[in-house]
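Structure ticket #2291
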Amino acid sequence: MKVGRKAESDVLPADSISLFSFGPKLEAQLGAAIEDLNAPDEPLLTDLEDLSVQSLETGWADPIIEQMASNISVASISLSDPGSESYRISEDGFDQSEIEAEKWRLLATLLRGYGQNTERLHVPYYPLNSELKSESA
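Resolution: structure written out below.
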């Protein structure tokens, strides 16, 4: 998890919502979901951490989504292909106050974005809207 958090912080703007924006409780749930997946044909988490997996199949994160956000259909999430180290999932951002109500959908979409990574890391994110309203003079 520390590696993922560092990878995101290196390529994302400060005002963004990403997989590791949800805090330690959700990170622990994510870690538990990953550890619970013991499918023999799936790459092991240690293989990913050691970077011994040369490439992944598209959708490799789908089982994690199904375990974490069971009320969200993986098939309902469509994303454009990533083009750079980081990519904005949507032009529409979220206010801090909106994140809690949307967290499972955001989490599933971010995981799906990671699931599109097959040979190179592209970090998916949403913009975080500023809570400060500009006052007109």
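Closing remark: Residues 2-127 form one domain.
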